[in-house]
Every structure is written in C-alpha cells, then in structure tokens.
Amino acid sequence: MDAWFRGLMRPGRDVLPVYHPDRAGWAVALRRLALLGSIVLLAFVYGVLAAILPPSLLVGAAAPLALLALLVVWALPEAKAAPTRALTHAFTAFVVFMIVWPNYLAVSVAGLPWVSMRRLVGLAVTLLLLICVSTSKPFRQGLRDVFRASPWLSGLLIGFIVIQFLASVLSVSPSETIARWVNTAFTSTAICFVSIWLFGPGGKTVPWLVNRLAVVVLVLMVIGVFEARVQHVLWLGHIPAFLRIDDTVLDQLLQPHIRQGYRVVTTYTTPLAWGELLALTTPFILFRMVNAKTWPIRLMWLAFDLFILYSAILAAARLALVGFIAAHALFGLFWGLHRWRNARGDLIGISATLLYPAALIALVLAVLFVPALKVRVLGGGAAQSSTDARSAQFHAAIPVIARRPILGYGPGEGPAAINWRTPEGFLTIDLGFVSMASDLGLSGLFAYLGVLILSIVSLFRAGWRDVTSPFPAEFAVAVALAVLITTRMVLAQSDNDPLFMVLFGLALGALYQARNRGDGPRRAMPARA
User: Fold this and answer.
1) pTM of the predicted model, to two decimals?
2) How many CB atoms lie under 10 A from the CB of residue 128?
3) What are the pLDDT digits (tens) for 1-14?
4) Are the C-beta atoms of 424 and 449 separated by less than 8 Å?
5) In which element (H, E) is residue 209 found?
6) Angle of the 117-135 helix axis to the 190-198 helix axis, nearest 10
7) Vertex 483 angle, CA 479 and 484, to 5°
8) Cys-Cys crosslink for 432: which of 232, 343, 371, 492, Cβ 3.0 to 4.6 Å?
9) Which of 377, 284, 370 has the alpha carbon at shortest distance from 323?
10) Are 241 and 105 in contact (CB under 8 A)?
C-alpha cells in the first residue's frame, strides 16, 4: 500500500524533447482509471443492448467490435512467413463441411443466426486470410499478380462483390440484408479470395481440388443409395437436441420429397441442390478420366461418372441430368477440337469434331422423342407443374425488377418483392438469374454473367494453347462454369453459392498459372491410337 501511495505522489520529470515525458504518478493513475472506466462503460452499454434489442439488431450492435478486431489484424507486424499452410487446411475443411455437413444442423441461440459448421469454419478461414494479407507482403503481391493477369475478369468479380455490399446497405430492409451480407462475406467472399491465392501463387492445381471434391461427393452418393432404400434422410430421429434448430423449420426441411417416388437429397434440403452439385462435379471427373495414366485408373473414373448418373436419377432432378448431358456434350466438343489441333497425324480428333454435329442432332432427337428421356430432361407429366410455375414466376418478376433495376431489393429480399407462392402458400422463387436480378439488380446480374462468360472464354483460350495435356484443366473449369449457367437458369437455392465462388477463384488462379506456364517451352501432344 505504501509503495502504491508513493508511486501515486511521484512528481513528473522533464526529459529531452526526443523522449516521452515521465508523467506524474497521479496522471498515470487517472489515465489507467479512465481506460478501465471506458471498458466498464462499453461492457455496460453492450449488456443493455443485448437485453433490450431484438435479435435481428444484435448483428448491427456487434459491428464496432468487428471493426476493432479488423483494426487489430491490420496492425499486426510484418512476418517472415504467413500462415498459408493453416489457410490451406482451413480451406479444405471448409469444402468438406460445406458439402458433407447438413447446413440445417446448427446451434440456434435466442433467435440469433444459426451457428453452423459452414459459418464456424468460414470464420476461421476469413481470419486466417486477413492475417495473411496483413502480415505478408509476398501474399499481397501474389494476389495483385493474379488480378493483373486477368484485369477484366478481376474487375468484374470485384465489382460483383462491391454490388453485393451496396445492395445490402441500400436495400428495402438493411437490418436483414446486412446480416446476410456478413454471412456471405464469411462463407463466400473470403473463400473466393483464398481460392484465388491457392490456385494461383499458392501452386495448387485442379487435380488437387478434384481429388478432395471426388471423395466428399462419393461419400454423399453412397449415403444417397442407402437413403433411397429407407426413403428418408439417414439421421432422421437421431439429431442431438443442441443441433436442432426450430422444430417447425426442421420438420419442414426434413419432409420427404416425393414425385412418382422418393427423391434423394443427402445432406441438402432439396434434391435440386444435390443434383446441382452432381452436375458441377461431372466435368472434373471427365477431366480425371481422360488424363488418367493407366486404364485401371481410367475405368475407375468412368465408374465414378456412371455413379453420378445413377445418383442424378435417384434425385429425380432434371437440372442434374441436363447438366450431366451438357458436361459430356461440351467435353466431347472441346476434346475433339483440342486433339485435332495438337495431335498431328491423328484421325480421332478430326473424326470426333466432324461427327459432333451429327451426334448433337441425335442427342436432341432422343431428348425430344424418347418419352423417358424427354420427361427427365424437358419435363412433362408430374414434372410439368414445376415448369409452369417457373414460367409464371418469370412473368411476375419482370415488373418487380423494373421498379428497382439498379441494385434490386437487397440479398434475400427479391422473393418477398415478387411474392409468388406455391399452392400450399409457401413463398418461393426457382429461377436463379431472376432471383439475382431482384436481389442485386440488373447491375449485379450483368456482373455475375460477365464473370461466367468471360471466364469460360478466357479458360477455353488458355486450354487451347496447352499442347501438353489430352484435356487441359482450363477446359474442365470452363465446362463446369458452363454447366453452372444451365443450373442457375432453373434454381435459385443458395446451398452451393460458396462452391460457385470457389470456381470463380479457381478460374482466376488457373488463368494465372496458364500465363506463367506459357513463358516456358512446349512440345506438341503425341498422337494416340
């Protein structure tokens, strides 16, 4: 006590101007007391806010804390090495949990947003990304190099991300849309930038991603086979209490999907979202099959491709079959053109290319006149009602979008503005691009389509110049993005949105690696019998 009193009464001392003055003891004590009082006052204010504010406004109250955390990360000193290995492991974990873990199995506290595995792992990925950007100049330089390699594509992608933020702030319900934007920042935007670095300067390749994607998709396809037998999700009745969100919502999500038989959903909430994942996986399986070194490995990937087709049939999702057919059709075209150009003296490439129009016409005729194939691809019978509903939604959306054409109504607010309901009274919108136009306006839709189309064209050109591979990785990514266009035309569900951003980052990273690879010598691909 005496020592504390002597320190308090210690007078200040003058020092040279280049040093900090030695303040008096009472001045130091007052500064510390003011700091402690400020912390107590801030804690009191946040306690009162948590007690009186509705749950929807608590996210906004947490904004200053989030800004403080960002300031702390920004102030971190430069490090010799960024935690890129941890970032890679976190990215892999996110991809696995995004697909394998049902998003509706989450912790729900007092009406706050669900604390799901996707959000938890996405938060960890975001934090590691910010640390890497803050502490590593080579990491920042690597991202700049990727953006400079494809300036137009990078500008469209960044523009789309900015439009998402502006549409959230200027929406018809900012308190709701800003919360959705924060979730998107953790689970999609940050993942996109991590993908850009991983598949660009990070050196990861398309086969690296395909191997991990194939494993998790295979797990879900096996689950789907057993689910089709019991005709309900396998964890029905076995969900722990702490992972049960609102019982009414959960019961609605777990309702069996029936249309002339049970439709498999695996970990997704609808068979359409599961079918979309199958369609997007198909081009990468074809890529691995064609580039396999031995016939046993090639046959293994062929069996995987057939398993995807069987799983799409179990899901009874037309978009899965359309995407599957589109992936094989584009694959055949790209493969034939590439082989014709690069395998000199080979007749397979030129034959496949010249026969392609006839094969395409035969496929179209089969879809039009084979009843079973026509119903599965174009609809009809029990599936005709969904086709009619999409047509009605499109016509109902046009005047709604015209009222707010620039930035739309805000993320997630478009369906309520269109106000199209099922006969059971549920609010819904099935058309992905229409939903995006109502959420983000025509500016967001055009930016998104610009990223897709420019990525496809740029990747095709990069793969066209690659003469070392039977089917370049750039072609696989381009075909996947083309398949994405076919699925988004009829599906607005956001379950796979993080995967789309992974594909966008993969496209930029692949173009960066292709440009660097183009600096070295190349040799023509040998002809194969």
Assistant:
1) 0.84
2) 22
3) 555 555 555 555 55
4) no
5) helix 206-230
6) 60
7) 115
8) 492
9) 377
10) no
